[in-house]
Amino acid sequence: MKSVWDDRIRQVEAELVQLREHLVPLESGKVKLSSRTDNGPWEDVTQPTIERNKQVIRTYEAILADMKKRSLRL
User: What is the pLDDT of residues 13-61, one digit of tens each?
Assistant: First the structure.
C-alpha cells in the first residue's frame, strides 16, 4: 500500500540529488562564486556557500530519515 509519505519522500530524495550535483563544481574548484556590496571589491564566497549547502543537505537528510520512519509506522 502506498504511504501518504511516498510522494514527498521521492521529492526530498530528488532535491538531495540536485543539491549534491550543484555542490560538485564548487568543491572541485570548477566554479567560483563572488559577491560585492554596492561598487566595492568582489569577494570570493565559494567556501561559505559550500558550507551552507552542506548544512542544507544535512537538514534534508534528517528530514528524509524522519519521513521514512513515519511512513513505516503507517
Answer: 999 999 999 999 999 999 999 999 999 999 999 999 999 999 999 999 9
| Measured distance CA(35)–CA(53) in Å, rounded | 17
* Dist CA 57 CA 35 (whole Å): 23
pTM above 0.85, yes or no: no
Nearest to 17 by CA among 52, 51, 70, 64: 64
Say if residue 10 is exposed, middle or buried (CB neighbours under 10 Å; 0-12, 13-18, 19+): exposed
Biggest CA pair distance of the chain: 58
